[in-house]
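>> received
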Amino acid sequence: MTYCLVVDDSSVIRKVARRILEGLDFEIAEAEDGQQAVLACTNRMPDAILLDWNMPNMDGYEFLVKLRTMEGGAHPKVVFCTTENDVAHIAKAMNSGADEYVMKPFDKDILTSKFTEVGLLAA
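>> returned
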């Protein structure tokens, strides 16, 4: 089973993402911010990370940069999920190691499409 870490400071977003991804046969863990996500990755490196940009303590960009330097941190497919939609944010995320980018709000079709594009789901 593919293990996915959902990182978002919104419990509602985490719950929606969990419901969708569990329906796609993912095993899910959650983190409220980048600091919790670093700890989660230290304990068990996920196969996939659905990552919010704007969070307290450590934002998604800071977490992504840290992740990619961790042992095994090059492995997870990272899909940024945020309300930031300007080209500069998207370019910054992709240049820092994100694999894909999703705008909020999202639904099952959008997540299925993006997770398929990065090779986490069969086409």
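>> The radius of gyration is 13 Å.
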